[in-house]
Amino acid sequence: MIRRDGDYQVDIRTEMRGGSGDVKIEHLWDEQNELKGRTRLCARITLQPGCGIGFHRHEEEEEVFYIVSGQAEADDNGKTVVLNAGDTILTADGAGHAIKCVSEKPLVMAAFIASYK
């Protein structure tokens, strides 16, 4: 199955999880109708400069962010780190994270959430 860039379902979430600004989520594949495994999210996320997703925890699931472009400041379960293109962050069961765009250009990430159940 092929889906072309520009054909994704798009959600805009304002102040997501207590963060700042708007978060653009482009769903690459729909977890209800297309993905048959335990993947709850398969998306491209874009944050404009200064925008971010607030701190939250993942219970009985894990989330991976892959930084495609831009620079991020991430709270990795209480530790602040800077992420650049090519870097990844894994937040596993019970851990938490937050992420913010700190570059002058948008932060673009691939994001995947998989459930343990």
Compile the SSE list and pairings.
Elements: E1 9-14, E2 22-27, E3 39-47, E4 52-57, E5 61-69, E6 72-76, E7 79-83, E8 88-91, E9 96-101, E10 107-115
Antiparallel strand pairs: 1-2, 2-3, 3-10, 4-9, 5-8, 5-10, 6-7, 6-9
Protein model, in words:
The protein is 0% helix and 56% strand. It is built from no helices and ten strands. The chain is globular and about 35 Å long. The chain has one domain: Jelly Rolls (Sandwich). The model has no long low-confidence stretch (mean pLDDT 96). A hairpin with a 2-residue loop joins β6 and β7. The strands form two sheets. A six-stranded antiparallel β-sheet has the order 1-2-3-10-5-8, with no helix packed on it. With 117 residues, it is mainly beta.
Question: Which keywords apply here?
Answer:
single chain; 117 residues; mainly beta; Jelly Rolls; 6-stranded antiparallel β-sheet; 4-stranded antiparallel β-sheet; 10 strands; 0% helix; 56% strand
